[in-house]
């Protein structure tokens, strides 16, 4: 007979780990705020004595560069939304592209604080706006997995860009590629044999054509982000290569899983390119966050305007003397 010790919870899980997870879940907002302030304070300390260089790098960036990088962010958001539309559609959803795009725009503000918060906001908005045609939450969460798998595979293929900046061992990229390959094969196996909710969400993996289209749209989104990073790094005076831009993107995505908040861009840029100058690297990171927010707000503004337009059109159609139902549906 095995007696449960104070360090064990039900099912053999360490009770300490369970208490830590419960603590983080209940105090997610204070933890996020605290970590954000901590990272911002660390950046301020690093930039002490370099304020002029930082201000020069920020103000010296041309307006057309800011506009172009914000537009690239919109391209990335649209491409990733289309990939999500494909995975959700394969899961059996009967949701129009416009409705899904509007829900996808809700991820913008949430992602400033946490990637998980952004995904939760997007799923909640889709559930609230689409009605009976929307799958359940477990299926929607599973529909995110193929997109994340493609992004993880691309990150593993490009992980060699982190060897120089972070001093990582040379064998790490091959190990990451092998791990992602095994995980992708396992996902395809799960898509066939898993429970109904998970299997439905992974339905896109059972279609070669559908899976290829998801990969294509995710690649477009990633390339737009890489070009945006490269343009901003050069705009602040850093002689950065495309590999440096890729490394910054990987760092942003990785650190985005932590509750760091809006300082993710600056922290990632300093981590990768701080050796070339802390002030310009931090400036590039700040501009990455600013232009990303600008692009996201443009996308969200379109979603709000489209929602108002559709609502006004529906009211005109329902009013006496409005368009005939056939024309309204068309």
Structural features, described:
The structure is a single chain. With 330 residues, the protein is mainly alpha-helical. The chain has one domain (68-308). 75% of the residues lie in helices and 0% in strands. The protein is built from 16 helices and no strands. The protein has helices at 15-26, 28-47, 51-59, 63-90, 97-104, 107-111, 115-130, 137-157, 163-166, 172-193, 196-201, 208-235, 242-255, 264-273, 278-318, 325-329. The longest helix is centred in the C-terminal third of the chain and has 41 residues, at 278-318. The chain is globular. Mean pLDDT is 79; it is low at 1-11 and 325-330.
The major pleated sheet works out as:
none
How many β-strands, per DSSP? Answer: 0
Strand content: under 5%
In whole angstroms, the N-to-C terminal distance is 70 Å
Short description:
With 330 residues, this protein is mostly helical. It has helices spanning 15-26, 28-47, 51-59, 63-90, 97-104, 107-111, 115-130, 137-157, 163-166, 172-193, 196-201, 208-235, 242-255, 264-273, 278-318, 325-329.
């Amino acid at each position: 007979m095995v007696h449960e010790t104070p360090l064990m919870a039900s099912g053999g899980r360490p009770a300490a780990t369970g208490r830590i997870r419960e603590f983080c879940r209940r105090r997610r907002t204070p933890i996020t705020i605290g970590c954000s302030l901590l990272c911002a304070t660390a950046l301020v300390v690093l930039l002490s004595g370099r304020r002029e260089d930082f201000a020069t790098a920020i103000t010296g960036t041309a307006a057309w560069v800011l506009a172009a990088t914000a537009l690239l962010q919109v391209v990335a958001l649209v491409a990733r939304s289309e990939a999500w539309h494909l995975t959700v559609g394969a899961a059996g959803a009967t949701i129009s592209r416009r409705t899904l795009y509007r829900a996808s725009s809700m991820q913008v503000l949430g992602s400033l604080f946490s990637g998980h918060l952004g995904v939760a906001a997007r799923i909640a908005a889709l559930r609230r706006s689409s009605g009976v045609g929307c799958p359940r939450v477990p299926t929607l969460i599973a529909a995110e997995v193929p997109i994340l798998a493609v992004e993880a595979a691309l990150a593993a293929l490009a992980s060699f860009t982190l060897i120089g900046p972070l001093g990582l061992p040379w064998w790490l990229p091959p190990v990451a590629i092998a791990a992602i390959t095994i995980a992708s094969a396992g996902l395809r196996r799960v898509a066939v044999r898993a429970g109904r909710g998970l299997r439905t969400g992974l339905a896109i993996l059972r279609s070669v054509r559908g899976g290829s289209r998801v990969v294509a749209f995710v690649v477009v989104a990633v390339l737009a982000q890489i070009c945006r990073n490269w343009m901003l790094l050069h705009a602040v005076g850093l002689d950065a290569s495309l590999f440096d831009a890729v490394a910054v993107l990987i760092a942003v995505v990785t650190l985005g899983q932590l509750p760091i908040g809006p300082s993710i861009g600056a922290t990632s840029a300093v981590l990768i390119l701080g050796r070339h100058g802390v002030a310009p690297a931090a400036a590039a990171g700040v501009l990455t966050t600013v232009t990303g927010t600008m692009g996201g707000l443009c996308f969200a503004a379109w979603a709000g305007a489209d929602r108002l337009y559709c609502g006004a059109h529906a009211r005109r159609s329902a009013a006496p003397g409005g368009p005939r139902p056939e024309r309204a549906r068309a």
